């Protein structure tokens, strides 16, 4: 084999990689989107919750509970968690 054939082989491999990578990326995104659609479809089957809170109030409540450690502080033996 001479140098020219090695260069051709290297170019062929590079082109193949350049073709395969986008195909794999598109396939991975397609699989992700299909799975996400399944996750969204299940809650959409339910009926409305008729809750008095808005989405903003619910998210604020969740953040206060999560970052404020609200459930931990409710326990009598966990008073030391608040300063931490």
Sequence stretches where pLDDT stays below 50 over 5 or more residues: none
Helix content: over 70%
Approximate strand percentage: under 5%
Calculate the terminal CA-CA distance, rounded to whole Å. 69 Å
Query: Please, what is the average pLDDT?
Result: 80
Please, how many helices? 3
Radius of gyration: 27 Å
Largest sheet: none
Number of domains: 2
Number of strands: 0
SSE pattern = HHH
Which structural class do you get from the secondary structure elements?
A: mainly alpha
Shape: elongated
Quick tags:
2 domains; elongated; 3 helices; mainly alpha; 84 residues; single chain
Protein model, in words:
This protein has 84 residues and is mainly alpha-helical. It has 2 domains: 1-46; 54-84, no CATH class. The chain is built from 3 helices and no strands. The longest helix has 42 residues, at 3-44. It is elongated and about 80 Å long. The termini are far apart. The mean pLDDT is 80.
Question: Outline of this structure?
Answer:
This protein has 84 residues and is mainly alpha-helical.
Per-chain topology:
Elements: H1 3-44, H2 55-68, H3 70-74
